[in-house]
Fold this sequence. Notes:
Elements: H1 2-27, H2 31-59, H3 65-91, H4 95-109, H5 114-142, H6 147-165, H7 173-201, H8 232-241, H9 249-271
Helix pairs in contact: 1-2, 1-4, 1-5, 1-6, 1-7, 2-5, 3-5, 3-7, 3-9, 4-5, 7-8, 7-9
Amino acid sequence: MAELLIVFREVLEASLIVGILYTYLKKIGQDKALIRLWQGVMVALAASLLGSLLFQKLAGGFHGQAEKLFEGIVMIVAAAVLGTMIIWMAKNRNIAEDLESKAADALDSEKLGYGIFALAFISVFREGIETILFLYGVMMKQGGLNITLSLVGAAIGLGLGYMIFVQGRKVPLKTFFNVSSVLLIFVAAGMLAYGVHELESAGVIPDYGRIWDINPSKFPDGSYPMFHDKGNVGALFKGLFGYNGDPSAIEVLVWLSALIGLGTMWKKAAEG
């Protein structure tokens, strides 16, 4: 489920950005600049795909301890970027006005709309790179990636963005972002804890032992216990929140600290 939530959130943010720019340009009659807008979007998508291929090639070049170290660093970076994004969205509730101001500046400085191209490219490419980074983190944490859920998340994000800015329907956007932000705080905390787990495995961080271990052998029928991280409940929690059936003391401490710290910062940013 984590991939659905992440892709939904990132695609929705990109859709909102493009939708705001599209609506603004239509409102002021800048049809020529609209061409640059869509060009920027398409180039950003192509660049994101290329970035994904390069990232996969880089990640596949590590083995053994180096692989654990690489995955640990990537997970920690992904958690930091995800946390930053959550706080940024909480602070920037007037994103529409900010983007319209940037669009106006871009049109003033570039008569042919190249400023709009750059604004669209940077905005969408950032979301694309974040998606790649986050999904890689989810894949490492879960041991795989559910493509169907990712596509469903993308479809929901695109559909909601379309309804908001093209159809002009009233959608409780604040509720969506508040709920998704809380869930993503758990995802970020799980990524950070798993990054620490990988660094422990690489020998970079000392391992002081397991707090508990509810990952015993499978049942005779081949199934896993309910709270095993491959069991019915455990697998769901692992996918969403980075649950581990046999965590170390440092993992639990990091997870709780991230959850409390990020939750507090998000609450202050949302209220500020």
